[in-house]
Amino acid sequence: MSFRLSYRADPGNPWFSWQYVRDNSDTILAAVREHASLTGRAVLIAVLIALPLSVLAYWFRPLAGPILAVSGVVYTIPSLALFAFIAPYLGTGTTTVLVGLVLYALLLIVRNVVAGLNQVPPEVGEAAQGMGYGRWGRLFRIDLPLALPGIVTGVRLATVSTVALVTVGVLVGHGGLGQLIFAGFQNNLYKAEIMTAALLCVAIAVVLDLLLVLVARLVTPWSTRRAR
Amino acid sequence: MTVATNPIGQAVVWINDPLNWTNPGGMLDRLGEHLTISALAVALGCLVAWPLGLWLGHLGRGGGLVVLVSNATLAIPTLALLTILPVVFASGFGRTPVVVALAVFAVPPLLANAYTGVRQVDPEALDAARGMGLSGGQLLRRVELPLAVPYLAAGFRTAAVQVIATAALASFVNGGGLGQIIRTGFGIGIAAGGGQIVAGGVLVAGLALLAEVVLGGVERLVTPRPLRRGRQRAGRPRPADATGSA
């Protein structure tokens, strides 16, 4: 992974430098793409695993405690330590980074989905049962739609924190913009590179967050109709 | 000595080597660094966040600001902040920039909990206190502050655990700490340093979990008994609490 820089032409070491952005646009774009794709993949996989897990915790109450407890404990483990556990087995590469990212996102999403599902009023569930909904019908037609706000909150939190966490991935392989931050650090603290990458990280987080808000609006049209 | 081939076996061997404990830059040194950096960062965070949070809560304004600060720090990459602050201070890579960077991560939970702690005080109690002739400052010191203590403790716990977790990354800006053990392991390469990497991971994770448990006990101690059960459901909305893990 070589991120060669053409920065010597730029006099001094300014915080912001168009010169740097122009000269290294390919590198920067590649890093942004990698960053967004790592985030997207991690959150997507996490959602796919988190939803069934949460439904299990919701259906079988005795499971809810352990699932939430385990997720709480794993969430306490520092990212560097988590990567340190995975790396010796999976090597340094995208897989290791993804596994770590998925684990953290998973925990955030499970917590929120379980909370969302538990907020479905019992009367609603009973009414659904009275109308002849089976377990699955009730889940898909009643419980999950009503828990959507909770689910969306979880996915938004997970997305934003994953964007920030991807940078740590540079230590075990791929870190998207983290590579630029780290390279800037090693290149005699090249400020423009560090700053550009940091700002782009925040920008990616904001954009993805807004996208999710938009999606949430579209899938829960009733929430905007109701006066908040 | 038989050489263990799997990383866990290597880690056990590495941890059991007394030299790895006592050497300069060994586990004990790193643990000391880790705890010093974390303690300074949390103390700095408290100095900034508690007065501000309590004051904003007292005024009943700034809720939006608190949420904004919490969300913004969630999005800022840890690594970027840890890298940027040493540049700002420009004084090499001593402790100060790392401590300040970590303190930034301690502020949101401290601030949010201090604010919420004051806001949740029963308005009737405040009315009664005002009726007794307490001034604004007295109200804050004698009524709101004591009643907010459980929240302050909850924020302190979240902040401390998060700082201890984040401090592991300080090793990448030459800030020392337990993360250094992992970093050295990666430096040797996974084949040779795998055991050391896992061992460092165990130490860092163990310290974070230990802090969580110990501070959880402290939080419980300072929370009056009648509040304990109710708080878990309503007081501290854990799912949404803005604590990015680092």
From TrEMBL, chain A:
This chain's protein is named Osmoprotectant transport system permease protein
Q: Which PANTHER family match?
A: GLYCINE BETAINE/L-PROLINE TRANSPORT SYSTEM PERMEASE PROTEIN PROW, OSMOPROTECTANT IMPORT PERMEASE PROTEIN OSMW
Q: Where is the ABC transmembrane type-1 domain?
A: 32-212
Coiled coil regions in record:
none
State the InterPro entries in the record.
ABC_transp_perm/SBD, MetI-like, MetI-like_sf
Membrane disposition: Multi-pass membrane protein
Which chain regions cross the lipid bilayer? 42-60, 67-90, 96-114, 146-174, 194-219
Q: Which domain of life is it from?
A: Bacteria
Presence of keyword Coiled coil: no
UniProtKB/TrEMBL annotation, chain B:
Q: Which domain of life is it from?
A: Bacteria
Membrane topology designation: Multi-pass membrane protein
Give a GO biological-process term: transmembrane transport
Q: Which UniProt keywords apply?
A: Membrane, Transmembrane, Transmembrane helix, Transport
Q: Which Pfam families match?
A: BPD_transp_1
Record GO cellular component, one term = plasma membrane
Does the record bear Cell membrane in its keywords? no
Q: Which residues cross the membrane?
A: 35-56, 68-90, 97-116, 148-173, 185-211
Looking up CDD domains in the UniProt record yields: TM_PBP2 (cd06261)
Gene3D superfamilies attached to this UniProt entry:
MetI-like
Where does the protein end up?
A: Cell membrane; Membrane
Main site of residence? membrane
Q: Does the keyword Transferase apply?
A: no
Concerning PROSITE patterns, the annotation shows: ABC_TM1
Query: ABC transmembrane type-1 domain: from which residue to which, for each copy?
Result: 31-215
Per the record, the similarity remark reads:
Belongs to the binding-protein-dependent transport system permease family.
What is the name of this protein? Osmoprotectant transport system permease protein
The species this protein was found in: Micromonospora parathelypteridis
